[in-house]
Amino acid sequence: MLSVTHYSEHLFTQSTPMTSIPNHANPPFRHWLRDALHPLSDAGAWNRLLGRVNPLWSVTGIRAKVVDRVTESADTISLWLKPSRRWRGHAPGQHLMLGVEINGVLRRRVFSVSSAARPDRLLRITLQRQAEGGVTGWLHEHAKKGLVVEISEASGKFLLPGPVPDRLLMIAGGSGITPLLAMLHRLADDACSTDIVLFQLYRHRAQHLFAGELADLSRRLPGLSIHAHCSAEHGRLIANDLASSVPDLGRRQTLLCGPAPLMEDIAAVWAERGLEEHLQTERFAAPRPTAGTGTGTQVHALGSEQVFTQVAGRSLLESAEAAGLQPKFGCRAGLCRTCLCQKRSGRVRNLLTGLVSSQPDEWVQLCISVAESDLELSI
Amino acid sequence: MNGTATRPTTCRATALGPVERECLAEELDAIRTEVTASLGERDAKHIRRMVDRAQASAIAGRGLLMFGWGPISWILGVIALAHAKILENMEIGHNVMHGQYDWMNDDSLSSQSYDWDIVCAREHWLNSHNVEHHNHTNILGKDHDYGYGMLRLTREQRWHPATLLQPLWYLLLAILFQWGVAIHDIKLGRFFKGRMSRAELKQRSRPFVSKAVRQLFKDYVLFPALAFWQWPRVLLGNLCANLIRNLWTNAIIFCGHFTEHAQTFNRDATRNETRGGWYLRQIQGSSNLEGGKWFHTLSGHLSHQIEHHLFPDMPAPRYPEIAPRVREICKRYGIHYNSAGFWRQYGSVLKRIAVHAWPTRAPRAEAA
User: Fold this and answer.
1) CATH number for the segment(s) A298-377
2) CA separation (Å) from A336 to A120, A350, B148, B305?
3) How many Cβ atoms sit within 10 Å of the Cβ of residue A264?
4) Chain-centre distance of CA B287, in angstroms?
C-alpha cells in the first residue's frame, strides 16, 4: 500500500511541462537568454554531459544513487539512497517523488522517507511490490547498488506536532509504518521521553515489517510501547476496540497512516468521540470516489477545480465542453495534440489506438479519449 | 486561392467505395496500434542520440567558425553547423513537436514545451502545421501549406500575370524558407485583403517578432561578437549555414506534397470525409523519397511523407519499418504509392512550378 501516489494537493504544484510554455506577451529575460545561447543553454544537454562524468550531477533535477538494498519481507524492500547535494533534506513523515526510466518512459511515484535525517545524508525509502507492477515492480527487480534514480525535494504536511506533545498515539496499517518510523528515529535521536503508543497492524505474520528495528527503537525510547496486531491470527482490529484500549485517548495526539478502509474507520470513530482535532493522517491512495451514484464516470478537472461526467459515446473533450469547460483544442481528430493534458489518475482509453492508459501522469489526447474510470486531469 | 473551392476537383475518381475505405482504415489502424504498443527504450535511445549528435555538431561548427583559421576550417564549420541545424529542425524539432515522443514523459522532449531552433515560433507552427496542414492536407483553400499562398501548382488555382514570375518567387522562398514558414501563420494575405485589422495583425505577429529577434541576435550579434576580430567569418558562416538549412528543408518539404503525382483536393469533395477517406487523401496527397539511412535521418524521415501523414505522432524512425506494409496495402487497394529518388521527385516539383506559371486551363467541369 505504501507506494501508491499520495494525492495531497501540494503534489500538484510540481512543475508540469505546461508551465514551461513561454509567455510571449512578455518574455522573461532568462528565457530570452536561454534561447539566444542555444544549444549552450540546453539544460538537458548539460545534464547528459555531466551525467557521464558523475551520474549524480545535474543542473536541473536531483539525482540519487542506490547505496544499499535491504529485504524487509517477501514483498517489501528498502533502498538506501545517497542524494546529490542539491537535495535539501526532509522532515520525518514527509515523502518524495521518485522517478525511474522504464523501457524509455520516465515513471514517477511517491514514497515516504522511512529514515530520519542523518549526518551522512543518506535516506531510506521502503516499497511494497504492487500487484499492478509499474515502478515498484520494476524497482524490486532492478534496484541494486549503483542504480541512479531521479528524486524530488521532500514535501508533505504529515509531520510531528510542533513542540512534541507529552503523549502520542501512532497507528500504522501495513507499510503505513514508514513515515511513522522516520518520526520514531527522529524522536530517538533527540532522546525524547514522550509517551508513545504505537499500534502496528498487518495482515500476515510475514508482513510484519521492521520488527527488529522497532525493538531497537523501544530500547532507545523509554516511553514507547508497541502493540503489534496481526489480523490473520487475531482477527481484524475494530477501530472502536482500538480506541477503547487506549484509556487516555482524549489526551493523545494521533498520527495515522495506512490503507484507506482503516483510515476511514478510524476517522469515523475519532469523529464520533469529538477528537478530529487530535487526528493527523497521511493518505497513500486517492480518496475513493463516492460509489453508487449511478451518474457515470466522474472526471475531476484539477486546473479549474470542476467535476464533469463522461458522456456515453462522446470523447472527453466533448464531455468537458458539454459541462461548460473550455479545454484548448485543435483538429479534434487526434492529430495535432493541442488538447493534450496530463492525467493524474484513472483509466483512459484511446479510441484511435485502442490502448488503455492506467499509469499515473500519462499524457492523454482529450479529443480521442474516453474515461474508463473516475479520472483526475490537469485541465 | 479562395475561388478554387467551387472549381472542379483534380482528385481522380478513386475506385474505393465506402466499405473498402473502412477496411483500409482498419488495416492502417492495426499498424498504428501494433507500433504504439511496441514503443520503448529503442525509440528513446534514438531521439536522445539525435539530440546529442545535433548538439555535438553545433558545438563543433560554432567552434570551428569562431576559433578556426583559414578557409578549410570555415567550410567544415559551415557544414557542421548546417548539419546541426538540419538535424535539430527536422529529425528533432519537427518530430518532437508532433508529439512523437510525448509518451516518454520527458519534459525536454515534450510537444507541450519543446521550442525549436528556427525563427518560426512554436505556437504558430503548432497551428499552421499540426492543426491545419495535417488535417486538411492538399485541400485547396484549407491547407495553407499548399503553395504557401504564393505558388500556383495546379490548374484549379487562379492565374494572375504575376504568376509568370513564380519560379523567381520560389527561388526566394527556398532561400528564405525559415522566414516564409515563420510568417506563414500570421496570415498576411488576410490583412492585405482587408479581412484582418491592424490590431489583430499586431497581436498575431507578436510571437514571430519575439522569436525572430532572439534568433537574429544569436546568429548575427552574439556569436560573431564572441569571436572578437573573427566576427566577419562567424557572421558569414552562420548566414551560409542558415542558407543551406533553408534550401535543404525547402526541397524536402516541397517533395512531400507537390510532386508530379501528388493529388490536390477540393473542399466540397472532402466535406463528409470518413476516416478511411482521410487516410486515402493522406496517401494520395503525399510522396516519398528513396535513399539511404543518412538521407532519411537528415530529412527528419519526411522522406517517408506518406507514413508520416498517416501517423504523424508515431516516432519517425518507425516509418521506414512500416513502409513496406503500407506499400503492400496500397498495392492491394489499387492506390498509387508515390515514391521515387530525390532528384526525380524534386525535378517534377520544379517542373510543376514552371508549368503552372503559365495560364494552364482548368479542365472542363466534368465532375460537376
Assistant:
1) 3.10.20.30
2) 49, 15, 20, 16
3) 13
4) 12
Helix (H) or strand (E) holding A230: strand A224-230
Q: Does A189 touch chain B (CB under 8 A)?
A: no
Is residue B102 a part of any domain in this protein?
no
Distance from CA of B29 to the nearest CA of A (A): 7
The whole-number pLDDT of residue B82 equals 98
Cβ–Cβ gap B52/A45 under 8 Å: yes
Residue B32 lies in a domain: yes
CA dist A220 → A111, A118, A195, A223, B320 (Å): 26, 17, 13, 9, 66
Residues 290-349 of A with CB under 8 A from B: 330-331, 333, 335-338, 340
Interchain CB contact of B202 with A (< 8 Å): no
Contacts of B119 (CB under 8 A, 6+ apart): B178, B179, B181, B182, B208, B211, B212, B215, B216
Pick among A15, A31, A38, A361 to test the B interface (most B CBs inside 10 A):
A38
Half-sphere exposure of B277 (CA within 13 A, CB side): 13
Residue B128 inside a domain? The answer is: yes
The fold of the A9-151 domain, in CATH, is Elongation Factor Tu (Ef-tu); domain 3 (2.40.30)
- Domain-embedded: residue B79: no
Give yes or no for a contact between A231 and A256, defined as CB atoms under 8 angstroms apart. Answer: no
Give tens-digit pLDDT for A260-293: 889 989 999 999 998 888 899 887 654 444 443 4
Going from N- to C-terminal start, the domains of chain A cover 9-151, 167-282, 298-377
Q: What pLDDT digit, counting tens, does each position of B301-352 carry?
A: 999 999 999 999 999 999 999 999 999 999 999 999 999 999 999 999 999 9
Domain holding B259, by residue range, is: 2-38+121-355
Domain covering A167-282, topology? Rossmann fold (3.40.50)
Flag the least confident range among A48-62, A114-128, B318-332. Answer: A48-62
Number of domains within chain B? 1
Q: Which A-chain residues 119-158 have CB contacts (< 8 A) with chain B? A: none
Query: CA-CA distance, A299 to A291, in Å (whole number)?
Result: 14
For residue B14, which amino acid is it? T
Phi-psi category of residue A180: left, alpha or beta, with phi > 0 → left and psi -120 to 50 → alpha = alpha
Burial of A235 (0-12, 13-18, 19+ CB in 10 A): exposed
Assembly ipTM: 0.82
For residue A41, the chain B residue with the least C-alpha distance is: B55
Quickly count: other Cβ atoms within 10 Å of residue B232's Cβ.
10
